[in-house]
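Protein folding task:
====================
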Amino acid sequence: DYIAFKGGGLILSSEFSTWLAFVAGGGRGLQARATLTDLYDVPKRYAYSTKTDGTTSLEKPFLSMCGAMTYSSFKELATSDSIRSGFLARFLLFTPPPSDSSAPAWPTAEDGEKIYNAKKEMFNLLMAAPVMKKYLLAENVKEYYEGLHEVLKEKVKNFSIDKSDLIEPFFKRWSPYILKIAMLMQYAEDPASTKIDHWSMYNALLVVK
């Protein structure tokens, strides 16, 4: 109902492993998985029907999900079938870089205000009625992005046939993810800007990488 009213939304899952186990199961889990798969590509129109509520139509629906889980839980739920189906590859999965240092006793305030303001701006954007915003790429940024795509392609080629079959669904979405995150980076730096600069593209690569 919320998506039908607002056009889109954000799901925050504190226990992503529980949710992933739900959609991997049968019955309602499979139905939810099929619906999320349909919504992933932001179709122009999506309609579903129920016996009690009739038919509901969604115009250009979009949905984002953010969650966290332990590596051991991920290993248990990430089967070869879920990877080859392409469903798991629709999520951008990454882990923090390994570190030998322990967590500090007090949180640091480095860039705290800047991050807070960026999060507040994006939150207001998500809660408001969605407005289409188009971003442009400078020619040098286009060339940089195309070079990144070729580098990722070569990395996939270096895997064995068996492993490349598993990583291929993820690779197909890495380049689009870089573009999507670059837009978020640019919006965080300058909400009024409509042109993605080299720095935003580079920061997007660091997230996907």
Remarks:
- The mean pLDDT is 78.
